[in-house]
Amino acid sequence: MMRRLEGKTALVTGAARGIGAAIASAFVENGAFVYLTDIDDVAGRSTAAVLGGQARYLHLDVREESDWQSAMAQVLDERQGLHVLVNNAGITGFEQGNYVHDPEHVALEAWRAVQRTNVEGVLLGCKHAIQTLRKTRSTGSIINISSRSGLVGIPGAAAYAASKAAVRNHTKTVALYCAEQGLPIRCNSIHPAAILTPMWDPILGDGPEREERMREFVQDCPLRRFGKPEEVAALAVMLASDEAAYMNGAELNIDGGILAGAAAAPASSGQ
Ligand code: NDP
Prior knowledge:
CATH class: Alpha Beta
Number of strands: 7
Bound molecules: NADPH dihydro-nicotinamide-adenine-dinucleotide phosphate
Oligomer: single chain
CATH topology: Rossmann fold
Strand content: 5-15%
Radius of gyration: 18 Å
Helix content: 40-55%
Number of helices: 8
Order of helices and strands: EHEHEHEHEHEHHHE
Mean pLDDT: 96
Number of domains: 1
Shape: globular
Distance between the termini: 57 Å
Structural class: alpha/beta
CATH superfamily: NAD(P)-binding Rossmann-like Domain
Strand order of the largest sheet: 3-2-1-4-5-6-7
């Protein structure tokens, strides 16, 4: 197999499980040295351990600037540079069982919690990656995981949708800023939809109704199925590699074709 990331050092946030874990694994398979980072240290360590000597776990809460500073210092110390950052960590806001996220009723604190992880986390990641890459004068690729929800409105997930729209736009700002500064850093966003990971567990449940709910969720998907984390990882490998050297400020949808159509009618209000 062609190893497309040979010699590169990457850092992936939220890599203990789900899409982040799949990206870390695909990066290692392609020859990169990968720092898997997360707030779930137990899961993060065990995910990294499976990947062997080309992977290392680091605790990194994307909301904390001091965590970013120490992670970058460790990467510089151990690897003398960074080439790829994947800002993957993200939350829906539904994790604690609060599903009231419509624009009329969402609580300010719930809104802010989502922005803190999804928007401020990405801001801090880009900021510290740019500073690190500037120091080492390395060629870099920053990949921000946005969402289909960053491109369309989601009535029941106002905080999440706004946060992912901010990620989409910040990606373009970073791409332009780096170009303006003469830094060889590309920045692109990936927009997944309906990728089957633990993020869906609070929504799908684990009872007998899970299969039925899964069917309902993919009814509007032309491919009529959930996507796999490995399918998103394949796209991240391409963006991280030098094959994507001319891709900058781009947004790539990976959604089984959901965004190809115009099935935009909101759910019936019952009136
Ligand atoms: P998961 O919930 O399965 O995994 C997310 C990981 O991020 C978890 O390990 C979680 O830890 C960690 N995390 C949460 N908060 C922080 C934080 N502050 N700092 C560091 N790590 C943190 O999510 P997915 O793999 O499904 O999603 C990954 C990304 O893809 C997210 O940005 C998501 O919004 C995006 N996405 C996913 C889609 C999908 O259908 N799955 C669709 C569109 C976009 P813990 O478990 O301890 O909270």
